[in-house]
């Protein structure tokens, strides 16, 4: 299987760009979420177990279960026929990538801003972000969308690609399990402060390298698009670590530098106003054209990340043989 992984990755990536997220088909991530919800409900019944220990057990069960099931499905498919196994690998990889789905959400906001009006744009961006959208003006909507695309470039594209390049379909789906757990349990509130600790920490560890490797790829993509590639690195060095997340600031600062805008700043969650640090080194406004460039920058960065990874794999394999 490893000898064909490069072609499988390319096929899966093309499928994602052509089809996006299959709305009417059962998605493995939904199954992971279902397992996580039921695991949490089961573990919370055991009062004698501390919430932090219960959260650790939840990670072991969900992530371990994902590894076992994915490996078992692939083993079974390859046992039936090698081509069946390759097809299963491509499908699993396809389910792991979300470049087109991310672009589709951003394009929906863009279309709403251009054709439908601000209220519809607020509703569309509300599907991408957790902040309050009811009082957003046009620039707020664009900025929120750009931030979501920039952050999720790692979660939805480069990180699963990174682990797929290293460990194949099992690696990609294992990362999706880790990321899903963080999105469900990784909240710093009373319910999940302890139970979600392990999920949040593991997600931080899993995203550490992909977030940083995404930066030079965004820089190169910006240069190809005739944007300011040098500003990508200056923006990351100066502002990335101001973000509350140890990883999200890298991709957001990289996009801010490439696009020549400033991200972050004040926003509201549940009616509570928060003032977050700004990312980026230029204070230009976010416009509709900024959003168009953001979508193209994300897709090009995804392709370059895959191409670079495949090239490195082939180079290493050639040097070994």
Sequence-ordered SSE layout with sheet pairings:
Blueprint: H1 5-19, H2 28-43, H3 51-80, H4 82-96, H5 99-116, H6 118-126, H7 138-185, H8 197-224, H9 229-239, H10 248-259, E1 263-269, E2 272-279, H11 288-320
Antiparallel strand pairs: 1-2
Helix pairs in contact: 1-4, 1-11, 2-3, 2-7, 3-4, 3-7, 4-7, 5-6, 5-7, 5-11, 6-7, 7-8, 7-10, 7-11, 8-9, 8-10, 8-11, 9-10
Q: What is the number of domains?
A: 1
The chain-level mean pLDDT equals 93
| Count of discrete alpha- or pi-helical segments spanning 4 or more residues | 11
What is the distance, rounded to the nearest whole angstrom, between the alpha carbons of the first and last residues? Answer: 17 Å
Give the radius of gyration.
20 Å
Low-confidence stretches: none
Q: Strand share of the residues?
A: under 5%
What global shape is seen? globular
Class by helix and strand content?
Answer: mainly alpha
Number-wise, the strands total 2
Biggest beta-sheet profile: 2 strands, antiparallel
Helix content estimate: over 70%
Biggest sheet, strands in spatial order? 1-2
């Amino acid at each position: 299987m490893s000898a064909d992984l490069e072609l499988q990755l390319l096929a899966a990536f093309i499928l994602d760009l052509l089809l996006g997220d299959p709305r009417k088909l059962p998605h493995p991530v939904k199954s992971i979420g279902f397992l996580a919800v039921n695991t949490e409900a089961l573990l919370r019944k055991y009062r004698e177990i501390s919430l932090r220990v219960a959260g650790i057990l939840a990670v072991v069960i969900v992530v371990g279960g994902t590894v076992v099931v994915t490996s078992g499905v692939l083993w079974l498919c390859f046992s039936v026929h090698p081509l069946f196994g390759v097809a299963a690998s491509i499908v699993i990889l396809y389910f792991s990538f979300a470049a087109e789905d991310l672009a589709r959400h951003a394009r929906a906001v863009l279309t709403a801003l251009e054709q439908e009006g601000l209220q519809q744009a607020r509703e569309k961006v509300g599907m991408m972000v957790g902040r309050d959208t009811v009082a957003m003006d046009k620039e707020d909507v664009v900025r929120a969308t750009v931030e979501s695309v920039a952050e999720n470039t790692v979660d939805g594209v480069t990180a699963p690609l990174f682990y797929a390049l290293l460990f194949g379909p099992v690696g990609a789906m294992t990362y999706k399990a880790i990321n899903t757990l963080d999105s469900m349990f990784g909240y710093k509130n009373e319910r999940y402060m302890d139970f979600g600790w392990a999920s949040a920490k593991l997600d931080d560890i899993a995203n550490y390298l992909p977030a940083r490797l995404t930066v030079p790829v965004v820089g190169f993509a910006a240069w190809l698009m005739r944007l300011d590639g040098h500003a990508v690195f200056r923006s990351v060095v100066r502002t990335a670590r101001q973000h509350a997340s140890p990883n999200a600031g890298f991709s957001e600062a990289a996009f801010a530098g490439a696009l020549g805008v400033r991200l972050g700043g004040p926003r509201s969650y549940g009616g509570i106003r928060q003032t977050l640090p700004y990312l980026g080194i230029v204070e230009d406004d976010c416009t509709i054209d900024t959003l168009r460039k953001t979508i193209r920058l994300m897709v090009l960065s995804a392709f370059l990340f895959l191409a670079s990874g495949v090239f490195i794999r082939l180079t290493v394999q050639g040097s070994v043989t």
